[in-house]
Amino acid sequence: MNGARKTPQRTCVGCRCLKDKKDLIRIVRDEDKHISIDLTGKKNGRGAYLCPDTACLDRAVKSRALEKSFKTALPPTLVEQLRREIEQIDE
Ligand SMILES: [Zn+2]
User: Fold this and answer.
1) Cα-to-centroid distance, 53 and ligand 1 (Å)
2) Residue 29 resides in a domain
């Protein structure tokens, strides 16, 4: 590891792979414990990252990785929203 890396990297909460931040979907929990998808990457709050892959989403849901990361329940509507978002990116 050196300081020369240009692209920030983050770990996907589904597969635990380290990937370029720009290739991951950011999910953010704000101070009101509201969880949303952050497509701009600029929202304030605690972030978690997910590959644009439904397999990673399924793994993250199954392992409760997002809930653990955010320390709050994951709304089912958000999971559906993420799935739609990923399906759009996949096309
Ligand atoms: Zn992944």
Assistant:
1) 7
2) yes
Number of folded domains that form the chain: 1
CA atoms within 13 A on the CB side of 74: 23
Question: 33-64 burial by CB neighbour count: b if 16+ within 10 A, else e?
Answer: eebebbeeeeeebebbbbbbbeebbebbbeee
d(CA 17, CA 79): 20
Q: How far is the CA of 11 from the centre of ligand 1 (A)?
A: 8
pTM of the model: 0.88
pLDDT tens-digit series, residues 12-48: 999 999 999 999 999 999 999 999 999 888 899 999 9
Q: How far is the CA of 58 from the centre of ligand 1 (A)?
A: 10
